[in-house]
Amino acid sequence: MNxxxxxxxxxxxxxxxxxxxxxxxHKRNPYTIAFWSTAFPGxxxxxxxxxxxxxxxxxxxxxxxxxxxxxxxxxxxxxxQFQAARDVLDPRFMSLYIPVYLFAxxxxxxxxxxxxxxxxxxxxxxxxxxxFNIGAFEVNYLDxxxxxxxxxxxxxxxxxxxxxxxxxxxxxxxLLSTIxxxxxxxxxxxxxxxxxGDIHSxxxxxxxxxxxxxxxxxxxxxxxAYVSTVENNKLFDHALRSHLVRNYQPPGVTLTIxxxxx
Length: 262
Hints:
- The chain is 65% helix and 5% strand.
- The mean pLDDT is 88.
- The radius of gyration is 23 Å and the shape is elongated.
- α1 runs antiparallel to α6, α7 packs antiparallel against α13 (213-248) and α10 packs antiparallel against α11.
- By secondary structure, the chain is mainly α.
- The strands form 2 sheets. It has a two-stranded antiparallel ribbon with strand order 1-2. Strands 3-4 form a two-stranded antiparallel sheet.
- The longest helix has 36 residues, at 213-248.
- The protein is built from 13 helices and 4 strands.
């Protein structure tokens, strides 16, 4: 879609449909966005469709966390091994971790508040946007999808729920991240040993430093798939409603359920 050529010239748009996915603006709870940024820096920005900023913050969180061994220190703390937690932390990088962590929370909250205001203006302007995109690599279009299906697929394999919604780039990022986390944490081998009853070997096999990333990633993919599906369906309804009003409602006449046009 070319925003600077007719008939799509407007100041604000509710959505953008491309070969690689659908980005849209909708109302979000700033506290929910800040919570996900607290759980894992970058997740709040990904929920806001701020992908580049979100990817950078996620990669930074993994990099700096590995440098200071924060997850391992958390595990020692939860086990009551406070001296071990102090010994494993690398203080050389702590001053780099805290400011970026706080920035991710603050910036995601601030951006959510601003984007809610932009949404109100875009909804009022109700500008046309492309609902169908076809290219040499992909075809993408607005349609209705079932939220529970997105949740089930995301619970099976993280990133598949995003693929169901045709969010190709985000799905690829989540899939590659999941592969790295699963491989480095040895969680599959540890689960196998746990299932066959070798609990001690399972505890020795798993890498706690990498394992603590997985719950946040897993729950985020499920939540994102569900919310994005619901909002995608709302966008489809809005686009269809606007199309019918523009093309089939007589000028100056407001149609209601049960009304007739002479």
